[in-house]
Give the backbone structure.
Amino acid sequence: MPERIIIIGAVALGPKVACRLKRLNPEARITLIDRDNLISYGGCGIPYYIGGDIADLKGLFSTFAHAVRDIEFFRTDKGVDALVGVEAISINRKEKKLLVRNVNSNKELELEYDKLVIATGATPVRPPFPGVDLSGVFVVSNLHHASAIKERISKGAVEKAVVIGAGAVGIELAEAMADMWEVDTTIIEMADHVLPAALGKNISAVVEKELRENDINLLLSQKVVRINGDKENRVTSVETTETTVSCDMVVLAAGVRPNSELAKDAGLAIGRYGGILVDPCMQTTDPDIYAGGDCVEVQNIINGQSMLMPLGSLANRQGRIIATNINGGCEHFKGAVGSFCIKVFGLGVAKAGLTFEQAESAGFDPVYSVVSQSDRAHFYPDSDFMYMKLIADRKTRKILGVE
């Protein structure tokens, strides 16, 4: 009897597992399920769709040959069944059954599996302050959110916007709104510098300068108290501990939390940050259940500690490993160094490893050096200045991070 593989989640890791596993084992019966009707898309491209760099939404869920990755594509081109508009309700590990529900009809169905893959992703954090449910307040976690934001802006309904959170997503969204649509945009961040989880203050100061020079208003070291609205529940302003900013739209970009409730309810181990715990083979505490992507915790190679690292690049790597191991292989995901790279107007911003502050917290005795130099030979056309910060351990001289 062909092995039955069910994959919960069909955005990044899920389709990667399904397609690779089908290549490795053409006889396998593979089923993708997702509560959304849009699947297998590049979520990292959402800010660039909102900003107009990507003109057509279909570009985010199409192949390089312009084939749309929908349920028919997976069925005919990949030999994989895809059930959309279907959410996973519970896992019966003893009987190897997954209870699912159609989100439109509420009809429930039990699916039997031999191996199960949890790729449930992460959900944007909705902070506890009042006003997050007002009309005009958005989160960005899927293509429906992206379409709603772009439609609102393109119709001229937004003159002033506030982005709460100065992480990578918040900065990319702020640039998208200000650059393409000329929306008066303010970023509010409770930390004292932008990209606080990724950069130290030295390099983040360069990013802050670039943002301000491109008319992004930065309010740092300020905590949001509430989002205010009018009598029709439409957002009118954001109130912080120091000021009030009028606006027509608010985007919450204060981080994400892993969607691990399904795994937790099934008795699988959950880590200190709320992500599913997996071993190097990407197996959970149930050897017949694998997990990967934004819903799991991974090991930081530098300090050996667990962390959340919601990146599509890692999800795709983990997906290949999961498929290989389900097929009887023995590949390991050894962890990550926390690398990331984003564009901020005319800057390219990148980081790998630990910041100085993270190194101190991890028990290292860190030192650092900041240099500025040409990014190529100074006589070469279009050469420009580059700023770099290197963090190392004083005792071992081991490099801990670079920004």
